[in-house]
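User: Hello, beginner here. Can you help me understand these amino acid letters and fold codes? It all follows right here:
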Amino acid sequence: MDLSDIKIVTKNKKAKRRGRGTGSGLGKTSGRGHKGAGQRKGKKTPYIGFSGGNIPFFRQLPKRGFTARNAKKYQIVNLVTIDQRAKGNTELNPEIMEKLNLIKDKNKLVKVLANKGDKFSLKITIKADKISKKAKEIIESNGGVFECLKR
């Protein structure tokens, strides 16, 4: 099964004719009920989250946290995955990382991280925008070099 195989089934259903006498079931008030804003013309449909005039749920919740507008978002690359995928390479930059499927976009910022007890066996030059202290120690202990990209 594929998304292209799915076909939307529509029924040939005619719109209900309102205000055509009491026998139609939608006569007199035309399905709008008696009195109130819903009965009158020009009534707007309520916005998403409208809960019958009560305070909407999202306004009852407290405001929490903060999101910086100009925060830098890094693509994270782990030393373990570099060790597995970059065998035979002497240099690793964002273009090569993208080809090895370590990152998704070579134009976005890249940060190299390391977990406790990571085993890293490559002597490699890594070019990235940022690196953790632990990752830098591990790379340099194997004779590798880290170069910071200024972008």
Observations:
- The chain has a mean pLDDT of 90.
- Residues 74-148 form a domain with the Ribosomal Protein L15; Chain: K; domain 2 fold (CATH 3.100.10.10).
- DSSP finds four helices and six strands in the chain.
- The first strand starts at residue 74 and ends at 78.
